[in-house]
Specification:
The chain has about 290 residues and is of the alpha/beta class. The protein contains eight helices and 16 strands. Helix 2 packs across helix 8 (about 255-270) and helix 6 packs parallel to helix 7. The longest helix has 15 residues, at about 125-140.
């Protein structure tokens, strides 16, 4: 069980009144919650969490300092760190230079466990049709960007956000006709082989060593990360939203990618992950 590492009287004096979230096995204070590295497992999104967004997904590349930080943190956690991303595993390994064994790619449709065993879902027959129709659609709207993946295809409108209404109408129709799962993200729609999401990937990790029996902490920025936030809550863990405040299943918030790096670096130094900015109740999904 994770507790704030303070005596009750001292915590009340410094931080205010203690509160025990309903159904939670952890004690928290309004201003500060601390989690020992020995007690947790850490699940991290990639784009918008570990790496800043770029205009095009392929522009994201390796970063020496970031990858060293993640490698050192995974070693300290004795392997209890997984990256959970919408990117394929091969692309995650390219960006992180293969420093993390446990990875879920393509929103959980690909998963490599801590023993390096690889589980991959079969590709849906509708993916090929979706790729063809998206290619034709993009010829009409060249500001859009297509990201083809082994088990899905994504359509980005980051370069022209005003196209969102047109993209939404096209996406809903295409998903209905192909039987693919329509996954909305930040300025992107993705057509996925059905059956998995980031939350299910986290759940699969949490019943395996070395993650089983620990408190999961999921950190992410995108709408696709809400499944992860919801699942870690069921394991007595917490979700950390990165970026602007919105309605969310997360419990805490960090401002941006730089704040995530600083938070993780401090965690390595102090041996605790400390969280201060709680999600306001009016934004918190139950």
């Amino acid at each position: 069980m994770s507790v704030v590492i303070c005596e009750v009287e001292r915590a009340n004096e410094i931080y205010g009144n203690w509160r025990q979230p309903q159904g939670s096995g952890r004690m928290m204070v309004d201003a500060l919650s601390r989690y020992r590295l020995d007690d947790i497992s850490l699940f991290l999104d990639l784009d918008g969490t570990l790496a800043p967004f770029t205009d095009l997904p392929e522009e994201v590349g390796p970063d020496i300092a970031r990858n060293a930080l993640i490698r050192n943190l995974a070693l300290r956690l004795q392997g209890r760190l997984a990256v959970v991303s919408g990117r394929p595993i091969a692309d995650i390994d390219r960006i992180l230079e293969g420093v993390i064994p446990a990875v879920a790619g393509s929103h959980g449709l690909q998963r490599r466990d801590a023993r390096l065993d690889l589980i991959v879902a079969p590709v849906h027959s509708g993916v090929a049709q979706a790729k063809q129709e998206i290619a034709a659609f993009v010829r009409r709207y060249p500001e859009l960007h297509v990201e083809e993946k082994p088990l899905s295809v994504a359509l980005h409108y980051r370069l022209e956000p005003t196209l969102k209404p047109v993209v939404e109408v096209f996406a809903e129709d295409l998903a209905r006709r192909t039987g693919l799962k329509l996954q909305r993200g930040i300025m992107v729609v993705e057509f996925l082989t059905p059956g998995m999401d980031k939350g299910r990937a986290v759940r699969a990790f949490m019943v395996e060593p070395p993650f089983a029996g620990t408190i999961p902490v999921f950190v992410g920025d995108d709408l696709t990360d809400e499944d992860g936030f919801r699942v870690v809550r069921s394991f007595g863990g917490i979700g950390v939203l990165v970026g602007a405040l919105r309605e969310t299943f997360a419990d805490y918030r960090l401002g941006n990618v730089e704040a995530v790096h600083h938070w993780l670096e401090r965690g390595l130094q102090t041996q605790y992950l400390e969280l201060e900015t709680a999600i306001e109740p009016s934004y918190r999904r139950i």
